[in-house]
Design a protein that fits this description.
Order of helices and strands of chain A: EHEHHEHEHHHHHEEEHEHHEHHHHEE
Number of helices of chain A: 16
CATH architecture of one domain in chain A: 3-Layer(aba) Sandwich
Oligomer: heterodimer
Distance between the termini of chain B: 63 Å
Helix content of chain B: under 10%
Structural class of chain B: mainly beta
Shape of chain B: elongated
Number of strands of chain A: 11
CATH superfamily of one domain in chain A: Thiolase/Chalcone synthase
Strand order of the largest sheet of chain A: 1-7-4-2-3
Shape of chain A: globular
Strand content of chain A: 15-25%
CATH topology of one domain in chain A: Peroxisomal Thiolase, Chain A, domain 1
Radius of gyration of chain B: 25 Å
Largest interface: A-B, 41 and 46 residues
Number of helices of chain B: 2
Strand content of chain B: 25-35%
Number of strands of chain B: 10
Order of helices and strands of chain B: EEHEEEEHEEEE
Largest sheet of chain A: 5 strands, mixed
Chain lengths: 399, 174
């Protein structure tokens, strides 16, 4: 029987600016109980392996959090591993779990991720902690921040291709609108392109509403062979099987300046997509993918992503996004969950939340107002830093 | 409110339990302040010479002896060839390739906390280099353009991080 992993069950907490009553282990507990309910399972005794997905010892104020989470959810004494890859952590965790299953190391693995990036610290502290994930000596200490690095990159894109602020404001408005149909979203808003344009500048050309959210939250996903899922997961037979068919990963220099003259787009994303498309036999992603979650850490990043993922030609991202191609009623709906801009981004859970959104799209179980009709194949795009690491995962419904 | 706990911020009592709330007995929430202050003996490592040269108002880069690529900021190892690089001195003049105007400061160190916002983070291709150098461009934001010529200026004031011994300024008369 095939070892291509299936998504057996999923679970998540609501994403919030502050889960005041939960520390990381409490968040994880709630997401795991949600996953158990989704699976129709009473406990995790049948699950063979755990995989902890979180980024920051600083935000969580705890090292070896993976061991604590594993203990908290009753996985002792089974094997455990922690995966960290910056913003790409959750997607890299799933990619690692994919390899654990494909290799035969186990038939079932619970991927559990959480992060407390919300109001536990001030915005300034949050920016400092995130800036520690830049090159400390050369980027952070001069006064740089990720908003600034992304802003310099989208400016280069604007100057090379004529991309306009109104075009990425469309992303900021649309993703927050989509979040209104997602019950776990942090900050649904109905705002206009003009509202985005008029919000206060943060790092020009990015303004407040172009920036994604700082969030608390947790998510988990039970990945298994189909045989294991049919035997152990009562809910599995009740819905169409969703396979995790392909995964790709690419990398790039830490500092934007070292990429010169390639500073408008994400080379790592292009490579991750090429690998994943080859594995999934995809040659025309715009037509062959039905729904996608893209890493909209800033609104303009989605414009760069649709180019780097090969949905449109380079330089066409701005016009195609603003033209509605990626809206809920567009050719390829993206960020139906609300994305990082509207649903929120608890880092270690973010990539898992993206996979959960596309799995539920493929199962056709999301709110009808954001449900993409007849979705068969879905993509998640997740990256670290300014795409120093990029992961693309592809999922298919086969029934 | 504080009671016996000096760091206590607040305690929230549970609202009336809703039916079916499995956490009904766990809805009391206490928050406290936790502080963690660290200080490091932080080595600037193999690129220390760059920072030492700034004290002498000189701007250094490194060059790969095999492929000839010039790195500013310096790299001790060429990632293309895995050759150990050589130090070279640059004029410190260059051109802005892209930039951002930052309206908030992450306050990464005392030098950054002293900056007035908005300030300009510029990516500069120095004459003779192949990579972009990110640093502050001290100029009115509305006068900054990609393509403008800039030069390294050296600080005469003591700084906390030696990267602030330099910054960029526009070259006059353009």
């Amino acid at each position: 029987m095939s070892r291509i992993p299936v998504i057996a069950a999923v679970g998540a907490t609501p994403v919030a600016s502050e889960h005041r009553g939960c520390n990381p282990r409490d968040l994880m507990t709630e997401a795991v109980l949600d996953c158990l309910a989704d699976a129709g399972m009473d406990d995790l005794s049948a699950v063979e392996q755990g995989l902890a997905s979180y980024e920051s010892d600083h935000f969580n104020l705890q090292m070896t959090l993976g061991a604590i989470l594993h203990d908290t959810i009753g996985m002792i004494p089974k094997p455990n591993v922690r995966i960290e890859g910056g913003g790409a952590t959750g997607a890299m965790a799933l990619r690692t779990a994919w390899a654990y299953i494909q290799s035969g190391l186990c038939d079932s693995i619970l991927v559990y991720g959480c992060e407390k990036n919300g109001r536990g610290v001030s915005s300034r502290t949050a920016n400092q902690l995130f800036a520690l994930s830049a090159d400390v000596d050369w980027e952070m200490m001069v006064g740089g921040s990720y908003t600034g690095f992304y802003a310099a990159m989208i400016r280069a894109h604007m100057e090379a291709f004529g991309t306009r602020e109104e075009q990425f404001a469309h992303v900021a408005a649309r993703n927050r609108h989509n979040a209104g149909f997602n019950p776990i979203a942090q900050k649904p808003m109905d705002i206009s392109v003009a509202d985005v344009m008029n919000s206060r500048p943060v790092a020009e050309p990015y303004k407040l509403f172009d920036c994604s959210l700082l969030s608390d939250g947790a998510a988990c996903l039970l990945l298994a062979t189909e045989e294991w899922a049919r035997r152990r997961c009562p809910a599995f037979d009740g819905r169409a099987p969703v396979y995790f068919v392909a995964t790709g990963c690419g990398s790039d220099t830490m500092r934007l300046g070292d990429r010169y003259p390639e500073i408008t787009n994400f080379r790592a994303k292009q490579m991750a997509a090429a690998q994943a498309y080859a594995m999934a036999n995809i040659s025309d992603p715009m037509r062959e993918i039905d729904v996608a979650e893209l890493y909209d850490s800033y609104s303009g990043v989605e414009i760069q992503a649709v180019e780097d993922l090969g949905f449109v030609e380079r330089g066409q991202g701005g016009a195609s996004v603003a033209g509605g191609a990626f809206d809920l009623d567009g050719e390829l709906p993206v960020n139906t969950s609300g994305g990082l801009l509207g649903r929120g981004a608890p880092v270690g859970a973010t990539g898992i939340l993206q996979a959960i959104e596309v799995a539920q799209q493929l199962w056709a179980t999301v709110d009808p107002r954001r449900q993409v009709a007849n979705a068969r194949r879905a993509l998640t795009d997740t990256h670290a830093g300014i795409a120093s690491i990029s992961v693309v995962n592809i999922f298919e419904r086969r029934d | 409110m504080m009671g016996k706990v000096r760091s206590k911020i607040d305690i929230r009592l549970p609202e009336s339990a809703t039916a079916g709330d499995v956490w009904a007995q766990f809805r009391q929430v206490e928050r406290i302040t936790m502080e963690l202050t660290q200080s490091y003996k932080y080595s600037l490592g193999k690129v220390s010479r760059f920072f030492i040269a700034l004290e002498n108002r000189r701007f250094l880069a490194t060059r790969c002896p095999r492929c000839g690529k010039v790195y500013a900021p310096p790299r001790p190892l060429c990632p293309n060839c895995l050759s150990v690089t050589d130090w070279v001195e640059l004029s410190g003049q260059g051109v802005v390739k892209t930039y951002s105007v930052l309206h908030f400061s992450p306050g990464s160190n005392d030098d950054v906390r002293a900056l007035e916002t908005p300030y300009v983070l510029a990516y500069v291709l120095l004459d003779g280099a192949d990579t972009l150098f990110p640093h502050l461009l001290k100029a009115p934001p509305e006068q900054v353009r990609s393509g403008m010529r800039v030069a390294v200026a050296f600080s005469d004031e003591p700084v906390s991080h030696p990267i602030h011994l330099m910054y960029f300024v526009p070259i006059r008369g353009q």
